[in-house]
Amino acid sequence: MRAVRNAPPDVELVDVDEPEGDGELLRVAAAGICASDLLYLEYGSREIAGHEFAGVLADGTAVAVEPMFGCSGCPQCDQGNFNRCQSAGPTALGMLSSGGMSEYFRAPRRALVPLPSGLDVKDAALVEPASVAWHGCHMGAVGPTTRVAVVGAGAIGILAVTSAQAMGVEDVALEARHRHQFEARDLIGAVAPSGHYDIVLETGGSESSLHRAVALARPGGTVVYMGVFGDITWPHAEAFMKEVALRPSLGYCAHQGRREFAEAADMLAGRPELAQTLITHRFPIEDAPEAFRVARDKSKGVFRVVVEP
Ligand SMILES: [Zn+2]
Ligand SMILES: [Zn+2]
Predict the structure, then answer these.
(1) Model confidence pTM above 0.85
(2) For the chain, what percentages of helix, strand and coil (3-state, to nearest 5) are there?
């Protein structure tokens, strides 16, 4: 089968055996490229790329794959918190183990989330980033009475706004920088930030966006960060003086008995404008190297680039 393999600094199209062994075989329909995939290349990964993907099982069921598998044998996994499984990191798809940017993929049954009607499998590469955003809202305890701002208007920022809206927040603020981001902000009904917020969701993944998030938080508020990782200067002084809680949010899991991956898929099904807006580019698998170049190019108005194997 054809697959896209990390070959830093780029990717390459390769011919590999179909995956064998345990788990369910799916025909992959779409795999998205996100900033993490670009980071994995920087880290020197040589695995098959892709952790945001969806496909169709042999019986015709369309599924998204929750790519943090966990070990399925520890207390965190028992509760559905695969993201907190200490074995989940070492098997990160597309980084440390084979990802889903290939014609076929084999996933454990527990990782499969059937798609709701109304969500096309070719749009379902968005379920993963939507789940990241959805989980971030849960980690910040977003609810109808909270004032919420989002910093960073990439795909996860847009999806964080619509997640907060789905949880009952009116007038979610979104800090945008580029023209396509302002257009998307209008389309989804978000507003420009003004004043201070109970909960600020940081999705920009940079030191400056984390500092901005703390600046937007009210004293005693919460900043949820889902994109910041690695060596940065933390905004300790301002967070301390305002007693702002800095809350990490990693991936997605089961929240109060409900699976965030399934809830995020429902959100996408209910708002078809999200896939139309956020999937800005689609490429066949043979053009994957070009797809990665486009995903890197910030000048092109990119939200998500999707490869269709
Ligand atoms: Zn991602
Ligand atoms: Zn585990």
Answers:
(1) yes
(2) 35, 30, 35
> What φ, ψ does residue 234 adopt, rounded to 5°?
-80, 145
Ordered DSSP codes for 162-199? HHHHHTT-SS-EEE--SHHHHHHHHHHT-B---S-EEE
Please tell me the number of the ligand nearest to residue 227's CA: 1
Q: Is the pLDDT of residue 122 over 80?
A: yes
Find the 197 Cα to ligand 2 centroid distance in Å: 35
Please give the domain boundaries of the chain with CATH numbers for all domains.
Answer: 2-128+253-308 (3.90.180.10), 141-248 (3.40.50.720)
Please name which ligand lies nearest the alpha carbon of 91.
2
Cα distance between residue 141 and residue 222, in whole Å = 9
pLDDT tens, residue by residue, 142-162: 999 999 999 999 999 999 999
pLDDT above 80: residue 298: no
Give CA–CA dist 215/250, Å, rounded.
Answer: 22
Distance 244 CA to ligand 1 centre (A): 27
Q: What is the pLDDT of residue 256?
A: 83
Q: Please, what is the end-to-end C-alpha distance for the chain in angstroms?
A: 10
Percent above pLDDT 90 for the chain: 87
Ligand 2 centroid–CA 76 distance in Å is: 6
Distance 240 CA to ligand 1 centre (A): 31
